[in-house]
Write the structure tokens for this entry.
Amino acid sequence: MNTPNQAPSATEYGGDEVSAIVLDPGFSTTRAGFAGEDTPKSLIPTYYGKYSFEGQEKLIYGDDVFVTPRPGLSIHNPIGRDGIVEDWDMAEKVWEYSFTSKLTGAKPGNPLHNGLNDVPEGEPVSEMEGVESEEKPLADSPLLMSESSWNPTKAREKTIEIAMEKWGTPAFYLARNGVLAAFAAGKASALVVDIGASNISVTPVHDGMILKRGVQHSPLGGDYISSQIRALFKSNSPQPITITPHYLISAKTAVEAGQPPQVKYKTFPPERAPDASYRTFLEERTLSEFKECVVQVWPGPTKLSATGPNGVPNEEMARSSPGRPFEFPDGYNQVFGVDRYRVVESLFDAKAAIQDPETLFPAPTQAQTVPEIIKAALNGVDVDIRPHLLSNVVVTGASSLLYGFTDRLNQELTQLYPGPRVRISAPGNTSERRFSSWIGGSILASLGTFHQMWISKKEFDEHGPNIVEKRCK
Ligand SMILES: Nc1ncnc2c1ncn2[C@@H]1O[C@H](COP(=O)(O)OP(=O)(O)OP(=O)(O)O)[C@@H](O)[C@H]1O
Ligand SMILES: [Mg+2]
């Protein structure tokens, strides 16, 4: 028998021929694909839809969520704002959909004969007989999953239980997404700065392991940035901006910049209207486009509210540079000048946050800003390795694609740490930046040496779910 700290023997794991599945569940999207490939084949929203039809509850997953504004359709997320699963039943369903819809299909499988759980001669096989007849979606596929660095033990155990018992995976591993992003950048040690949807996080990684005392996270992720853009829209001039998703528009006419939209709205009688959460969900798509096309991070070296090295206030400089145009679904369009910097300045300078009494996001504190959480992360690790981490800063997460983000981060870090060399590595390739933890998982799970790391079904049965704490450090 193995102790939980030992690797499974070759008889327990012999699955070099089968390709593992890598599942990287984020707050906004869930990424899944085959280990060894460059990008995840499956990319779905983590949000799901719920409505009732003829008295029965119906659920919608994947991109279908966007399609039809059904009566009463509401949108939900099984993951909480802190990045930890809140609704396990639904998390299981969404994740399962992410691989069954595009990768595995719902196929029958027999874990006794797939080479991953070979039963040593002479041992009774009766305990697995029940499993044999059931159709479990991952019966043929080892599964590597990612998680946030602050995922609690209970949640980690629950995850391996779902993978082993519900999906029937023959081998499982749970990896911190910071470690995976470091691997994707070709580094075993790095300071990983992840700007996602629900959170920003900083994870110091040393020799492929997270340094737990240094892990920091704060709520100023992409959804917070969206809330700042909404705050800007409310106070926008020449007129406040309302985002009207396409499903509420039946006809529109082109208008000049800054002119009120000329639009015919679609209306729904109350009993046919989707829930407000559906509209918010679709508005988020427009906000995401706005971030991609308009929003810009003030380059520094001083903050936006300060005066630049030439004695001119930065805001004035920003005003004199050409703005960026954006057209909303209802045809309203305008050029955004200095405001395009203001909506993200609070990631660096909490005082710059645009106030909105109605927002669900509490006003940020300086301790939650990117430079401050990096400082806190470095203060949490050994002094000797700080210079090495600073010269290996890995920037990841789709919100880090904000135009100018890495330049500003570089400025801030060089000012905070004038001594050591600061080096930021951030792939220019968009999909590498968006999928880096998935890509790291794809690399890791296909390494020849990795097979010793998998937790086999047999070990799980022997030691219980807590084996995940011992093996997946
Ligand atoms: N080009 C872009 N520029 C700025 N923000 C972007 C861009 N593309 C996507 N985003 C934003 O990035 C966020 C999604 O990031 P990401 O996919 O890294 O999050 P996640 O992994 O699903 O969530 P989390 O890391 O919080 O669990 C969304 O808020 C989206 O609006
Ligand atoms: Mg993420």
The radius of gyration is 24 Å. Confidence is low (pLDDT under 50) at residues 1-15, 108-132.
